[in-house]
Amino acid sequence: MSKAIQVAIDGPASSGKSTIAKKIAKKLAYVYLDTGAMYRAITLLALDGHIPAEDADALKALAEASEITFEPGENGQRVLVNGQDQSEAIRTDRISKEVSAYSAVSEVRQVLVEKQRAYTQNGQGVVMDGRDIGTVVLPDAEVKIFLTASAEERGRRRFLENQAKGYSEMNLEDLIEDIKRRDLYDSTREDSPLVPADDAVMLDSSDLTLEEVEDSILAEIHRVIA
């Protein structure tokens, strides 16, 4: 590949951002950063520490003091929170129900955005996924993708994923309603709402396979670096 670039993949809950971002990063030998995992980690710590989403000062201190790192693992990536593997714990429905409220706290976002930007300072190619990568974290990214799908399709995917992992906290109908609730919360929050960047490529994956999504994004990357 002729030059290393920044790739921003944004989208709503359960749109497949992390899955596809990992595949793209592996294909290009780029650094991959799952920013959503960082917000989930803070949510986990806050819930375990009985810190409400309304306590912005305590949450800011928590985010500043927390060490969130990523390591290769059997399923692609392990998420270490203060040295403990919390890869599974941050993906439960308990966290999914609360993460939108905690990630909407401006003080938390400011701390984590700085930590996220630090990953790009060595000049390596990077693939980052989240909800505000192309608009806030990496506004100058050479490739910006906004990946979405219908709430029903995203709920179905999450349901199947939960079944495969042995989670049974929510049925399909409840998952779809939770996704719609998170969509509304994420798109209407004051700080860094979920909106496509003006120069983002819109990609609806409702009727696409994972391979078709990957091919579409790789084609855009190769177009940019050609």
Automatic annotation (TrEMBL):
Annotated keywords: ATP-binding, Cytoplasm, Kinase, Nucleotide-binding, Transferase
GO cellular component: cytosol
EC number, as in UniProt: 2.7.4.25
Catalytic activity: dCMP + ATP = dCDP + ADP; CMP + ATP = CDP + ADP
Cytidylate kinase domain mapped to chain residues: 7-222
Subcellular location: Cytoplasm
CDD domains assigned: CMPK
Gene Ontology terms for molecular function: ATP binding; dCMP kinase activity
GO biological process: nucleobase-containing small molecule interconversion; pyrimidine nucleotide metabolic process
Binding site for ATP: G11, P12, A13, S14, S15, G16, K17, S18, T19
Family, as annotated: Belongs to the cytidylate kinase family. Type 1 subfamily.
Annotated protein name in UniProt: Cytidylate kinase
Source organism of the structure: Aerococcus urinaeequi
